[in-house]
Amino acid sequence: MRLPYVLAATLLVAGCAAARPDLGPEISVPAEARTIQQAVDAAGEGATIVVAPGVYEETVHVKTRGLTIRGARRGSVIIDGETERPNGIVVAAPEVSVQNLTVRNHTSNGVLISAQRDFRVSYVTASNNALFGIHAFDAQRGVIEQSYTSGSATAGIYVGHCRPCDVVVRGNVSERNAVGYEGANASGGMFVLGNRFSGNRVGLLSSAERQDQVTIAGNLISDNDEALSPVRADGAFGVGMSITSSPKNVVFRNLVVGNPRGDVVVGAPSKKSRAPRGIPFTQVAAPPVQPEMPGGPLPGSEPDAEAYALPDEDLFDDRAAVRS
């Protein structure tokens, strides 16, 4: 009479073992785990998940410290929200790195780092996400680098609500967003270096009740009057760089040109001017081919603002769809 109970217990144990196999320090998707989430759930601290080309229709929640999620090919490893799921990758653990892949068609964020430390987002393409492409909220000691964002109806890259932040945003391209880069209530060790924020509705927005110790250097901020972009809720258009309520900041060696409502605006831009209607985030043009992450270790996370010279107008022109 006890046989059914023994059989049920055996099946339960077998099921648990299948859910978290011992796959070692590197896990291949889909060869060893069918989905990225299955690989994340099976991984131990410090593991690397290598994702083969394919379209992955899932949201990935990372809750294990020290994971690296790396796409084998940036433009061919695609986490697609199908305009149904809110987020592509949600980082909810420290020391997580997301590398060399694409996140698209989410109703909120492509990549969300929420209240974590020592994060890294490298060589990521975030396109056609309804709110933010790459969103670091209450996150500290991080790097967002060499990534591309477009089609975000709030901002391509957003860093907010951190003090001290100790975050470096460097070498990125943001275009066809409502705002290329936004820092909000982001103070202390906040560096925005050598990026291209061109062809958005607004290039760069630094705003806060109080925001200080922010360094903005070596960026190209140009031609931010792109009509084929999503409309931000407050409707600003045609501004290059807007800085509000931000004392004790350092802004130097930026090239800010061709922004019809003002290259540099201190204080909130007027909302009374006419602006194009914009288009839905789902209709923003697909991104151009972006460079693969090189082999070998990535650069250190320490910023070196003095190393950035005044950029040329063709900064990262080969990575852009909207030309200066």
Q: Given the C-alpha coordinates, what overall shape results? A: globular
Largest sheet geometry: 15 strands, parallel
- Radius of gyration over all CA atoms, rounded: 21 Å
Report the portion of residues in β strands.
Answer: 35-45%
Beta-strand segment tally? 26
Low-confidence runs:
1-20
- Total of DSSP H or I helical runs spanning 4+ residues: 2
User: Structural class from helices and strands?
Assistant: mainly beta
Outline the structure in words:
It contains two helices and 26 strands. The chain is mostly beta strands and 324 residues long. The termini are far apart.
Structural features:
324 residues, mainly beta, 7% helix, disordered N terminus, 15-stranded parallel beta sheet, 26 strands
Give a summary of the structure in a few sentences.
With 324 residues, the chain is mostly beta strands. It is 7% helix and 37% strand. It has helices at residues 3-19, 36-42, and strands spanning 26-29, 48-51, 54-56, 60-62, 68-71, 77-80, 87-91, 97-104, 109-114, 120-127, 132-137, 142-145, 148-150, 155-162, 167-170, 173-174, 179-186, 190-193, 196-197, 202-207, 214-217, 220-222, 239-243, 250-252, 255-257, 262-266.
Question: What does the secondary structure layout of this molecule look like, with pairings?
Answer:
Elements: H1 3-19, E1 26-29, H2 36-42, E2 48-51, E3 54-56, E4 60-62, E5 68-71, E6 77-80, E7 87-91, E8 97-104, E9 109-114, E10 120-127, E11 132-137, E12 142-145, E13 148-150, E14 155-162, E15 167-170, E16 173-174, E17 179-186, E18 190-193, E19 196-197, E20 202-207, E21 214-217, E22 220-222, E23 239-243, E24 250-252, E25 255-257, E26 262-266
